[in-house]
Amino acid sequence: MTLQDIVNKLDATVALGAERLDMEVEHAFASDLMSDVLTLKDTPVLVTGLCNVQTIRTCDMANIEVVIFVRNKKPTEDMIELAEDNDMVLICSTYSMFKTCGLLWDLGMKPLY
User: When you count CB atoms within 10 A of the terminal residue's CB, does the N or C end of the chain come out lower?
Assistant: First the structure.
């Protein structure tokens, strides 16, 4: 599926990276615990409700390219600048993490494990 498919299914907004919505992805991980995220390697999509600069730094260290913020969280300008420096895509969903993950599952998104 493409990021555009995800944005459409979640009725989401794109805070950064709209030019990359044709990117294909197939795996995601959902967590608010950045210590769990640090155990990942090269996961393309993170679903999280933790919305701060540390989230972006952690995703950079874990080579995560796409962050979907849930529960109507919006990245700050500092977060957007840091994510832009690291070539990330930031997507904002108004849905809960549970509903977001269910909708992604409906699209065919696969879990890491």
Answer: C
Integer angstrom CA distances of residue 69 from 7, 9, 100: 12, 14, 10
pLDDT, position 76: 97
Residues 6+ apart with CB under 8 A from 30: 46, 47, 48, 97, 100, 101
Give the separation between CA 100 and CA 65, rounded to whole angstroms: 18
CB atoms within 10 A of CB 90: 24
Give the integer Cα–Cα distance in Å for 50 and 48: 5
Q: Mean pLDDT of residues grouped by 10 in the chain (113 residues)?
A: 98 98 96 92 90 96 96 97 97 98 97 84
pTM exceeds 0.90, yes or no: yes
